[in-house]
Amino acid sequence: MSNTKVYSARSATSPLASTTIRRRDPTKQDIEMDILFCGICHSDLHTVRNEWSSVMSTVYPCTPGHEIVGRVTRVGSAVTKFKTGDLAAVGCMVDSDRTCPECKAGLEQFCPNIVLTYNSPDKHLGGVTYGGYSESIIVDQNFVLRVPANLDPAGAAPLLCAGITTYSPMRHWGVTGGQKVGVVGLGGLGHMAVKLAHALGAHVVVFTTSLNKKDDALRLGADEVVVSRNAAEMQKHAGSFHFILDAVSADHDINAYIQMLRRDGNITLVGAPPNPLAVSAFALILGRRSLSGSPIGGIAETQEMLDFCGSHNITADVEVIPIQKVNEAYERLLKSDVKYRFSIDMASLKSE
Ligand code: NAP
Ligand code: ZN
Questions:
Q1: What is the DSSP pairing of strand 318-322 with strand 17-23?
Q2: Suppose 67 and one of 131, 157, 188, 281 were both cysteines; which one would form an S-S bond, judging by CB atoms 3.0 to 4.6 Å apart?
Q3: Distance (Å, rounded) from C-alpha 288 to C-alpha 264?
Q4: Which atom of ligand 1 is nearest to the CA of 252?
Q5: Using an 8 Å Cβ cutoff, are 180 and 134 in contact?
Q6: Radius of gyration over alpha carbons of the chain, in Å?
Q7: Residue located nearest, by CA, to atom 16 of ligand 1
Q8: 158: Cβ below 6 Å to ligand 1?
Q9: At what angle do helices 299-312 and 188-199 cross, to 10 degrees?
């Protein structure tokens, strides 16, 4: 076992601060990596502040972070997929039971015994797993991904959650060239959805509450941008979308977007606001529209997404910050003030 420097929160109301945790020694299937960059996902904030307590309570101390890119420093004797010095990545899962029908179908994200990268029971050391706001991490090789060499590591880190969470439902619902696709909320997930939907050939329309994101949305690959407070602009798109991805982190009126779908259109929630959303039955019934949700993606699909990003040169637009700015970054997330993902340069943790 070794001590590792991390940032963690002691309670739902404490700021993240420097401390140490214990990591296991690598088993024969494990990879140890030094973390280079870790993205900040809004899920980190929801978890640190225990905002999802009705579904999963946070165990403290909590070290979040599930958008991890690092350099392999040690491999177990049975590891075949990586060697020391390789660039490697870890997303939201570090294990699953591997025997259930979901795992057998390559859909580990639905495994009833999924082990999340943080705040999940840790079968090795007891307690809970600790995430990527950390110097290093040890993960089974089957849950470690390859990063295409042409991608900048700081911008590639957010692909491990924001990338796969938006890619997976678009593939599932068959987003393809010529379709009209809406993206609600231009944050970390939303901006990845724009880039990926554009690369899939869709006509992309962004719905934003932030007037100042209009030019960026177009630069990121949107064909049109609608400021959602403008009722006339909203009305123009009624009944016209094949697919809409809702990536909003807070309370909002989802019915306004359900009504934007054409017949048989689908709106998928990836945003996970803590409070239930009110859904109008009529908005769904008239038009046989569907509303669904989607969590991250399986390991094979995550690798497929990384390779897709490699071949299209897609990374997140990141603001690289030292770990010491993490609490400030959380406050900015709450103000929708991030362009468009914070990526923590983990070298900054060495000075703590
Ligand atoms: P983020 O960077 O903070 O982006 C959220 C965006 O939502 C904001 O930039 C803003 O976009 C919009 N927004 C915020 N408050 C709003 C409000 N009151 N009304 C309308 N729009 C609002 O967050 P993120 O990291 O992309 O995560 C988004 C959500 O997805 C979070 O709830 C997160 O937990 C969840 N998530 C889910 C999964 C999954 O597996 N399903 C994975 C990762 C994250 P505009 O400024 O453009 O309006
Ligand atoms: Zn995430």
A1: unpaired
A2: 157
A3: 5
A4: 19
A5: no
A6: 20
A7: 250
A8: no
A9: 70
The residue behind tokens 């797993």 is 129
What DSSP element (H or E) covers 53?
Answer: none
Question: If you ran DSSP here, which 8-state letter would residue 145 be given?
Answer: E
Query: What is the CA(75)–ligand 1 centre distance, in A?
Result: 36
Residue of 200, 150, 171, 76 whose CA lies nearest to 315:
150
Closest CA to 64 of 89, 87, 39, 88: 39
Query: pLDDT tens for residues 25-58?
Result: 999 999 999 999 999 999 999 999 999 999 999 9
Q: What is the mean pLDDT of the chain?
A: 97
pLDDT tens digits, one per residue of 146-171: 999 999 999 999 999 999 999 999 99
CB of 165 within 6 A of ligand 1: the answer is yes
**Which helix H or strand E contains 191, and what residues bound it?**
helix 188-199
AA letter at 293 = G
Cα gap 26→4, rounded to integer Å: 14
Task: Tokens for 237, please give them.
Answer: 């798109």
Helices of type H across 248-325: 255-258, 281-285, 299-312
DSSP 3-state assignment of 332? helix
Whole-structure pTM value: 0.98
Name the token pair of 214.
Answer: 């209009």
Q: Which numbered ligand comes closest to the C-alpha of 271?
A: 1
- Residue 32 CA to residue 127 CA, distance in Å, equals 20
User: In whole angstroms, what is the distance from residue 349 CA to residue 35 CA?
Assistant: 10
Rounded to 10°, the helix 188-199/162-172 angle is: 50
